[in-house]
Write a structure and sequence with these properties.
12 helices, globular, 309 residues
Length: 309
């Protein structure tokens, strides 16, 4: 199998604070503006398989964020600012001047921090079911917020598995993932598993996840960073939640209220799909590609005009 195949993104590393950040990229020699794809809070770069399939002529660079995947040995802190700084180092290491940034879930928050701090490195953004502030549930202490927001996703990080098949069984029983199981998801799950039997576990570091979930409320200047981004800021809202429940991560009413206050925000409703399947299925990836492709085409047209002046 070649590295350009959809199932086997070519691995890369980039020097960052404390060591090397790992990741994978599809079609490293493709022409045009590369896509920097940033995964969710307990995910890895393998979450982008289907999106890579759906954008077959585009270079896609997808890191494992600090504290996840093959970047899980990097030291903290793991703040959104730290993640954004890491992405600049990734672009530098891979010789990329500017990228179009696609963020899912927490990766969308990293996208906002990156675009606000380094506008010269970002040509545009698409936020997929993430990146808009998520207020903390009322009355909870900080150490209780992660469990309340992430639920089983956080609990999984403390679980241990006797062998790889036990981890597969866990995911196949997941209400948001099991019904759409395919080879890409099998690869995603296998890549996430680290350790030795019978103490296999997810690659994500619980402390990193706990730090990041506290940052999703729009504090520490985040809301200002979001408001500062140039139009359009595309936001794709999944209709269903983390457990495929009807209650989405973002209610339609909350997104509408934010859109009223943020003219740059352009909202696309993604029916029937949940927080995971919006990127980790062919149907979801097709919707993401539908949002991304015209943005890249527009940039190409602008670049052509500038060349011909």
């Amino acid at each position: 199998m070649t590295h350009d195949s959809m199932r086997d993104p070519a691995p890369f590393t980039a020097p960052v604070r404390g060591g090397d950040l790992a990741g994978g990229q599809w079609r490293a020699d493709a022409a045009g503006t590369p896509i920097l794809a940033l995964h969710g809070i307990t995910a890895t770069h393998r979450a982008w398989h289907h999106v890579a399939d759906a954008l077959p002529e585009r270079r896609i660079v997808a890191p494992d964020l600090r504290g996840r995947g093959r970047s899980n040995g990097l030291p903290g802190p793991w703040s959104l600012h730290d993640h954004a700084d890491d992405q600049v180092r990734v672009l530098d290491a891979l010789g990329i001047d500017r990228a179009f940034v696609l963020g899912h879930s927490m990766g969308a928050f990293v996208t906002v921090r990156l675009a606000a701090a380094h506008p010269d490195r970002v040509t545009g953004v698409v936020l997929v079911d993430g990146g808009l502030p998520l207020p903390h549930p009322e009355g909870l202490a900080p150490d209780e917020v992660a469990a309340a927001v992430l639920g089983p996703a956080l609990a999984r990080l403390e679980m241990r598995f006797a062998d790889p098949s036990a981890y597969v069984d866990f995911w196949k029983a997941h209400p948001a993932i099991g019904p759409v199981w395919d080879d890409h998801l099998a690869d995603y799950v296998a890549y996430d598993l680290v350790g030795t039997p019978p103490e296999l576990r997810s690659s994500s570091i619980a402390e990193a996840v706990a730090q990041n979930v506290l940052e999703l409320d729009g504090s520490d200047g985040y809301a200002d960073d979001l408001a500062s981004l140039p139009a359009p800021v595309d936001f794709l809202r999944a209709e269903r939640g983390l457990l495929d429940q009807p209650e989405a991560l973002y209610s339609r009413e909350r997104v509408a209220a934010l859109a009223e206050r943020m003219p740059a925000l352009r909202v696309t409703e993604i029916a029937e799909l949940n927080h995971y399947t919006i990127v980790m299925t062919a149907a979801g990836a097709a919707q993401v590609a539908t949002a991304v492709a015209p943005r890249l085409a527009d940039e190409h047209a602008v670049a052509d005009k500038e060349v011909t002046r």
